[in-house]
Amino acid sequence: MTPTLSHLIADLADGRIEVVDLTIPLGIETQVIALPPIFAPSPGVSMQVISQYDEMGPGWYWNTITMGEHTGTHFDAPVHWVTGKDLPHNATDTIPPGRFVGPGCVIDVARESATDPDFLLTPEHIQAWEGVNGLIPRGAWVLLRTDWSTRSGADFLNADATGPHTPGFHQRASEFLVRERDILGVGVETIGTDAGQAGGFPVPFPNHTIMHGAGKFGLASLCNLDRLPATGSVIIAAPLKLVRGSGSPLRVLALVAR
């Protein structure tokens, strides 16, 4: 075993590195994205008991689960979007596993999102963050802290007659992160990686369009971003190895030095 791995194991055992769970609970009450009625909806989570220490299985308990791939805290693969459909290694079973792990960069816009639910991150916001924290490294996960995960029920979707109102990325910010910083992908606390009103933008759903077209990833419905430093964490976000999967629920973990 290398000294690096030996030190990691020792630091985990001694509590010098904390494992922070960035994943919301996944169950029948987990909210799913609402699409216009002309499109096929994604089902919510349903669970049916196969056996529970009974005549159907006296010594074991297990369930059948049904849900869409993009439910709860979930991973978006490039094949999820039309712009990424023809890329190589674009599905959950073909993405090299080393690309699921990278440094975390947390951009805190919780105050802005509290006063403006339609807040959009711009390249100017990113560059201001870099002026304090240094340049976003190549292969990073860029996580947008909005504290949206503290909301529940109707406040989480925050929809009215004009659709949902949730913060996200300006098209120019997504382009900047892909072209100028070559990140792994982005993560958000909202139900999807685009802003709530993104369906009506000049380029509809620009973050999906740009990120996945460039072979980048998305993480949605994260939580506990307030427990991460702006820089210095390691994010582990490995989806299920679904054959030709467009994404999957996953357990997102962050390693943080205490």
Descriptive labels:
two-stranded antiparallel sheet, single chain, 258 residues, 9-stranded mixed β-sheet
What do these coordinates show?
This protein is of the alpha/beta class. Helices cover 19% and strands 26% of the residues. It is built from six helices and 15 strands. The strands form four sheets. It has a nine-stranded mixed β-sheet. A two-stranded antiparallel ribbon has the order 2-3. α5 packs parallel to α6. It is globular. The model has no long low-confidence stretch (mean pLDDT 97).
Class from secondary-structure proportions: alpha/beta
Query: First CA to last CA: what distance?
Result: 24 Å
- Helix percent reads 10-25%
Overall body shape: globular
Biggest sheet, spatial arrangement of strands: 1-15-13-5-7-11-12-4-14
Largest sheet: 9 strands, mixed
Number of helices: 6
Low-pLDDT parts are none
Q: How many whole angstroms does the radius of gyration measure?
A: 19 Å
The helix/strand order is HEEEEEHEHEHEEEHEHEEEE
Q: What is the average of the pLDDT values?
A: 97
What multimeric state do the chains show? single chain
Strand percent estimate: 25-35%
Report the strand count: 15
Write the layout of secondary structure elements.
Blueprint: H1 3-14, E1 17-21, E2 46-54, E3 57-66, E4 74-76, E5 101-108, H2 110-115, E6 120-121, H3 123-133, E7 141-145, H4 154-157, E8 159-160, E9 163-164, E10 168-169, H5 171-179, E11 185-188, H6 206-213, E12 217-220, E13 233-236, E14 247-249, E15 253-257
